[in-house]
Design goal:
heterodimer; A: about 375 residues; mainly alpha; 3 strands; B: about 650 residues; alpha+beta; Penicillin-binding protein 2a (Domain 2); Beta-lactamase; 2 domains; five-stranded antiparallel sheet; about 15% strand; elongated
C-alpha cells in the first residue's frame, strides 16, 4: 500500500493529463455551451450583461475546474473538516454581515464576486461526510453515537441557510448530506423512521414557515389559488413549457420569456426557457446530458480505490441528480417553487463555482484514483 | 488498518446503496419525462392558447355611427373629425408628471384634470384614457410639437357626432353622450362595442335606433409583454359604420317651424295625410345637442334643466294638453256618425248672462255676448261652446271616445321611436272608474265636448286626427323613419278600392275596434265631408275663428280649427273682470292651438300648432299655421319630385 501511494507521486504531469476524464470535460463543455445560448436568449438575443457575465464565469470557473483537478485527492481528505468549517463560518458571517437582496441575506461581498457560502456548503457537506464515513466500520455506522455527529453537522448549516431565508439551498444541502449517509450504509429503518417523522411533523413545519414559503407550498397544491401572485411563476412556467410542444418554438422565439412573462428566467427558470424554445426534444436531450454527466461521475466512483473518493463521487453524483431533479420538477410543477438553480445552466456565480469545484474534486478522484488515503 | 474483508463488505454495501439510489433516480426521471410529455405533447394546444392569451392583447377601436338624413338626404347627424388626446396608461412612467405637462400644453382646466383622475381609477393599467376628446386645431398642433417629450401621450384624429343643424332637430334626432352603465345594461350591442369614450344615443332616434346606428367596433391586435407594453401590431380589423337612417322630415320645413316657435313654448307638427310621413315635428324651446357630445358643462346643463319652459320635453309627443276647440270637428263627426244630432238643429247661444245650465252648474261660451242662433256648421265655424255642450250631452262620452280613439287620440303614435312619447287620455265612463275609481258625471261629458276636462292629447295626435279627417276618413300609419314600402300611390289606390266596396263593409263600423291600414274609419262619407266643409268655413268665411289667417289663393287655401284650451278653471270673479290674456300671469294663460289641412281642394298635408300659454288659438296659433302651410306647399313640388326619384331609384 505504501508503494502504491508512492506510485502516485511518481506520476508525471503528462500521465495526469492523460488520466483526465475527457468525456466528462466534453459533457461539461456541452452543457456550458448550451447554457450560454440559453442565457443569451433570455436577453432577447443580445450579447449583453447577463450573457457576458455568464460566459466569463463559465470560462474562468471551467479553467478553475481543470486546474483544481490536479490537486491531490489527499488534500481534500485532509482538509475536509476544515473546508466544512470554513463554509460554516462563512454562513455565520453571512448571518451578521451578509449582503441582502430580495429580502434574503445570502451573500458575502468579495468585491469581484458576491459569494454565496450556502452553495459551497452543498459540496463541503459531501466532502465532510465522505471523510467521516471513510474509515468507519459498517457496524459503527449504525450506532447512535456515530449518527449523532453527522446529524449535528447537517442540521447546523441547514438551519443557518433556512434563516437567510433560502429553503431551496437548505433542502439541497440536507439532501446531499443524507445521500452520503445513505450510501455509507446507514440502516434503512432510520430513513423510514425519519421520513415518517417528517410526514407527521409536516403540519408543524408548515406552521413555522415564513408566510411566503407557506404560500408557495399552498400554491403548489393549487396554483390557481392566486394566479397573479404566488401562483404566477408556476402557471407561466407551465404555459411556457407546454406551448413549446415537441420541437419547441425555436431559438430566440420563446414568446413567454421574450415578452417577460417568465419570472427569474436567468436562474431558476432557465430550464423553462430552454424547454419553450427547444421543446420536448430539447428538454429530453438536456436531461440526457445531465444523466451522462452523473453516470460519468458514478463511473469514476467505481474506478477509485479509497472509500473517501468513492463516497464523494457517488454522493456528488447523487447531489447533481438532486439539483437537476429538484429544479426541473419545480419548473414543471411537480414540486413547490423553492428556489434551486439548475447546475451549470443557471446564471449565478456561486452555483457555478460550487458545481465546478465539485467536479474538480471528482476529477481529482479520477486522476488519483489509485491513491489510497493515508491515515493521519 | 481495516481488514480487507470488512473493506470488501463496506464496498458492497456502498454499491448496493448506489443501485437502490439509481433505481429511485430512474423512477424520478420517468416522472419528469412523463410530466414533460403531458405538458408539451398531450396538452400542448391548451398551453399554446394560454401563451397566445398572454402575449396578444386586443384594443377595440370605436365604431362609426350611422348617419341620419332627412327626406332629401341632407345629413342631420354627421360624423365630424375631432382631435383627441389619448393616454396609453401602460406607456406612461409617471402619470402625474405627464399630466402636468400635458395640462400646460393644451390648457386643461382643474375640472378636466379631476375628471381624468376619476376615469383613470376605473381603467385597467393597459387601457387607453381619453384625456380630452375635442381639442381645437391650435391645441392639437401645439401638442404635436411637444410630443417627443410626452411618452404615452397620443394625438388621435377621431370621429364624433356632429349635428349641423343643432337645436333645430334635437327633439327629432336626439343626441349622443358617453355610454353610461345604464346604457351598457340596456343593450348588448353597446356592451359589445364598448370602448373608452364610446358615444351612444341618449334620446330621440339616436336612442331608439341605437342598434342600427352603432356600427361595429374594429380590433387592433398587438403583441404585448408582461407589463402590457405593446411590442408589435399583429392585425387590424377596421371598424364599420352603422346603418344610415333616413327620416321623412323635411329639414327646411323643420327649421322653418322651429323658427316660428322662437321665443315661445310650443309645438308644430306637419304630416302627409296619405302616407303618414311626418314632415316636421318642432318643439320649443330647444337646445344644442352638440353640447352633449363631449359632455355638457355644469352651467349649460343647469340652464337647460332649470328653464321653466322645459326645453328637454319634446312637446309634440310628450307634451299633454287639453285639445280645446280643436276637438270640436271630431265631436261633431261623432254626433253625426252616431246620428245623435241633426246638423240643422238650432241652439241659441245667449252669452255670459244666460249660460248653459245642467243640474244647477253653469257652463259658459267663450264669447261674452253670445253667438245667437247656431246650426252645427256655424257652431264649428265660430266655435260655439254652447252648441257643443248640448251636442256632447246627447252624444255621451262613451260614443265620443270610440270616435276619438279611432282618429288617433289616446294612444302612442310613433310607438318605439321615442321612449318619452305619451299616450294621453281619451276618457270614458269605464276609464274613469278604473283610473279614478269614481263614476262619470254628465257635467264632465259636457266640458269634454269642447275639449276640456279629462281629455289629454299630444300635438302629434291632433295632427294625426286632422290628417285622418282630411284624407276622407282613412286610417294611416304616421311614421318618421322613412319607409319605402309606404307610398302615396299605394295609399290612394287602397282608398279608392275602399270607396268602391263601400257598401260591403258597413257592419259594426261604429264599434270600438282596431283598424287596418287605409281602412275607412267613417260610417257615412257625408259626415266627413260635412266636418271638412265646416272647417273650411272656420278659416275662409267671415266670422270664422281663423278667418284672418286664411289664404285666398287656391294653392294655399286651407281649412282649420282653432283651439284655446284653459289651463285653469275660470272663477266667476275672473269672468267678471274679463282680463286680457296679457294681463294674466304667464302660467295661467290659455294654450293656443290650431289644426288644419291643406290645400283645401285636394288636401295633402295636415298640421297642428300649439303655443303654450299663447292666448287664443286664432291670434297666437293660426297665424303660425298659415305661414307654415305656405312653406309646406311651396316645397310640395320638390317633395313630389324627390319622392318619384326615390321610387325610380328603388
Amino acid at each position: 500500500m505504501l508503494t502504491e501511494r508512492l506510485n502516485t507521486s511518481k506520476y508525471t504531469f503528462f500521465d495526469k493529463l492523460l488520466a483526465l476524464d475527457f468525456f466528462l470535460i466534453f459533457i461539461v463543455i456541452l452543457i456550458g455551451g448550451i447554457s450560454v445560448f440559453a442565457i443569451h436568449s433570455t436577453e432577447g438575443g443580445e450579447f449583453s450583461y447577463y450573457t457576458k457575465n455568464h460566459l466569463i464565469r463559465l470560462v474562468s470557473f471551467f479553467a478553475m475546474f481543470l486546474f483544481l483537478s490536479f490537486v491531490k485527492i489527499n488534500f481534500w481528505y485532509r482538509n475536509a473538516y476544515l473546508f466544512y468549517f470554513i463554509c460554516l463560518f462563512s454562513l455565520l458571517i453571512v448571518l451578521f454581515f451578509g449582503v441582502t437582496a430580495n429580502n434574503s441575506t445570502r451573500w458575502i461581498n468579495l468585491y469581484f464576486l458576491n459569494l454565496q457560502p450556502s452553495e459551497l456548503m452543498k459540496i463541503a457537506i459531501i466532502v465532510c461526510f465522505a471523510r467521516y464515513y471513510h474509515r468507519m466500520q459498517s457496524s459503527d455506522i449504525q450506532s447512535y453515537r456515530f449518527l449523532l455527529i453527522p446529524i449535528i453537522l447537517l442540521v447546523l448549516p441547514c438551519y443557518l441557510v433556512i434563516t437567510q431565508p433560502d429553503l431551496g439551498t437548505s433542502i439541497l444541502i440536507a439532501g446531499s448530506g443524507i445521500v452520503v449517509i445513505w450510501i455509507a450504509g446507514l440502516n434503512i429503518k432510520y430513513f423510514i423512521y425519519s421520513s415518517l417523522l417528517l410526514l407527521v411533523s409536516f403540519p408543524f413545519i408548515v406552521s413555522i414557515l415564513k408566510p411566503y414559503q407557506k404560500a408557495r407550498i399552498l400554491t403548489f397544491f393549487n396554483p390557481d389559488r392566486d394566479p397573479l401572485g404566488a401562483g404566477y411563476q408556476i402557471i407561466q412556467s407551465k404555459i411556457a413549457i407546454g406551448s413549446g410542444g415537441f420541437f419547441g418554438k425555436g431559438y430566440l422565439k420563446g414568446t413567454q420569456s421574450y415578452l417577460e412573462f417568465l419570472p427569474e428566467k436567468h436562474t431558476d427558470f432557465i430550464f423553462t426557457l430552454f424547454s419553450e424554445e427547444f421543446g420536448f426534444l430539447g428538454s429530453i436531450t438536456l436531461m440526457l446530458l445531465y444523466i451522462l454527466l452523473i453516470s460519468r461521475v458514478i463511473s469514476i466512483g467505481f474506478s477509485v480505490r479509497s472509500f473517501f473518493a468513492k463516497l464523494y463521487c457517488f454522493g456528488f453524483a447523487s447531489a447533481i441528480f438532486l439539483y437537476v431533479f429538484v429544479n426541473i420538477a419545480m419548473v414543471v410543477g411537480l414540486l413547490p417553487i423553492v428556489g434551486a438553480p439548475l447546475p451549470i445552466m443557471s446564471y449565478g456565480g456561486s452555483s457555478m463555482l460550487s458545481i465546478m469545484l465539485g467536479l474538480s474534486i471528482a476529477m481529482s478522484c479520477k486522476i488519483y484514483s489509485q491513491d489510497q488515503i493515508s491515515h493521519y | 488498518m481495516q481488514s480487507r474483508s470488512t473493506n470488501v463488505q463496506k464496498g458492497r454495501i456502498i454499491s448496493r446503496r448506489l443501485f437502490m439510489l439509481a433505481a429511485a433516480k430512474i423512477l424520478f426521471l420517468a416522472g419528469i419525462t412523463s410530466r414533460l410529455y403531458n405538458l408539451q405533447i398531450s396538452d400542448r394546444e391548451k398551453y399554446e392558447v394560454l401563451a397566445d392569451k398572454n402575449r396578444i392583447r386586443e384594443w377595440k377601436t370605436p365604431p362609426q355611427r350611422g348617419l341620419i338624413t332627412d327626406f332629401y338626404n341632407k345629413i342631420l347627424a354627421d360624423n365630424d373629425r375631432v382631435f383627441q388626446v389619448h393616454l396609453s396608461l401602460d406607456e406612461i412612467q409617471e402619470f402625474d408628471k405627464t399630466l402636468f405637462r400635458l395640462r400646460n400644453i393644451i390648457n386643461l382646466s382643474n375640472n378636466e384634470i379631476r375628471k381624468i383622475y376619476k376615469t383613470k381609477a376605473k381603467l385597467k393599467p393597459w387601457d387607453t384614457l381619453v384625456a380630452s376628446d375635442n381639442l381645437n386645431w391650435s391645441q392639437f398642433s401645439k401638442l404635436n410639437l411637444y410630443l417627443h417629450e410626452l411618452e404615452g401621450v397620443k394625438p388621435v384624429v377621431s370621429s364624433s357626432r356632429y349635428y349641423p343643424y343643432g337645436s333645430s332637430l334635437v327633439h327629432v334626432v336626439g343626441y349622443v353622450g358617453e355610454a353610461s352603465i345604464k346604457d351598457i345594461e340596456r343593450m348588448d350591442a353597446i356592451k359589445e362595442n364598448l370602448v373608452p369614450g364610446l358615444k351612444v344615443g341618449k334620446s330621440g332616434i339616436e336612442y331608439s335606433n341605437e342598434k342600427n346606428l352603432i356600427g361595429k367596433y374594429g380590433i387592433k391586435r398587438y403583441e404585448v409583454n408582461s407589463s402590457g407594453k405593446r411590442i408589435s401590431q399583429l392585425e387590424h380589423i377596421k371598424e364599420s359604420k352603422g346603418t344610415e337612417i333616413k327620416l321623412t322630415v323635411d329639414l327646411e320645413v323643420q327649421k322653418f317651424a322651429q323658427n316660428l316657435l322662437k321665443g315661445k313654448a310650443g309645438s308644430i307638427c306637419a304630416m302627409d295625410i296619405y302616407t303618414g310621413q311626418i314632415i316636421a315635428m318642432a318643439s320649443s324651446p330647444t337646445y344644442d345637442p352638440n353640447k352633449f357630445t363631449h359632455g355638457i358643462g355644469h352651467k349649460d346643463w343647469e340652464e337647460i334643466r332649470d328653464n321653466p319652459l322645459k326645453p328637454l320635453v319634446n312637446k309634440s309627443i310628450a307634451g299633454l294638453y287639453s285639445p280645446g276647440s280643436t276637438l270640436k270637428p271630431l265631436v261633431a263627426l261623432a254626433a253625426l256618425e252616431f246620428g245623435t244630432i241633426d246638423p240643422e238643429k238650432t241652439i241659441k247661444c245667449k252669452g255670459h248672462k244666460n249660460p248653459y245650465e245642467l243640474y244647477g252648474v253653469k257652463y259658459h261660451c267663450w264669447k261674452k255676448q253670445g253667438h245667437g242662433f247656431m246650426k252645427l256648421r256655424n257652431a264649428i265655424k265660430q266655435s260655439c261652446d254652447i252648441y257643443f255642450y248640448e251636442m256632447a250631452r246627447i252624444l255621451g262620452v262613451d260614443k265620443l271616445s270610440i270616435i276619438a280613439k279611432r282618429y288617433g287620440l289616446g294612444s302612442n303614435i310613433l310607438k318605439n321611436v321615442y321612449f318619452d312619447e305619451k299616450k294621453g287620455v281619451v276618457p270614458n265612463t269605464e276609464w274613469k272608474k278604473n283610473a279614478l275609481g269614481k263614476s262619470w258625471y254628465l257635467g264632465e261629458t259636457v266640458i269634454n265636448g269642447i275639449g276640456q276636462g279629462y281629455i289629454q292629447t299630444t300635438p302629434l295626435q291632433l295632427c294625426l286626427m286632422t290628417a285622418q279627417i282630411a284624407n276622407g276618413g282613412y286610417k294611416i300609419k304616421p311614421h318618421i323613419l322613412f319607409d319605402k314600402n309606404i307610398s302615396f300611390e299605394n295609399a290612394k289606390l287602397e282608398i279608392t278600392n275602399q270607396l268602391k266596396n263601400n257598401s260591403l263593409l258597413n257592419n259594426h263600423i261604429l264599434e270600438d275596434r282596431e283598424f287596418q291600414l287605409y281602412e275607412k274609419l267613417y260610417n257615412r262619407p257625408e259626415n266627413i265631408d260635412f266636418v271638412k266643409d265646416a272647417m273650411f268655413g272656420s278659416t275662409n268665411e267671415q266670422y270664422g275663428t281663423s278667418f284672418k289667417s286664411r289664404f285666398d289663393d287656391l294653392k294655399y287655401q286651407f281649412a282649420g280649427k282653432t283651439g284655446t284650451s284653459q289651463v285653469k278653471r275660470i272663477t266667476d270673479e275672473e269672468r267678471e273682470l274679463d282680463l286680457k290674456q296679457s294681463q294674466i300671469e304667464y302660467k295661467n294663460r290659455d294654450h293656443a292651438l290650431y289644426v288644419a289641412f291643406a290645400p283645401y281642394k285636394e288636401p295633402r298635408y295636415s298640421i297642428s300648432v300649439l303655443v303654450e300659454h299663447g292666448g287664443s288659438g286664432s291670434k297666437a296659433a293660426a297665424p303660425l299655421a298659415s305661414k307654415l302651410i305656405k312653406k309646406i306647399i311651396d316645397r310640395h313640388k320638390l317633395r313630389e319630385q324627390t319622392r318619384k326619384a326615390n321610387i325610380t331609384l328603388a
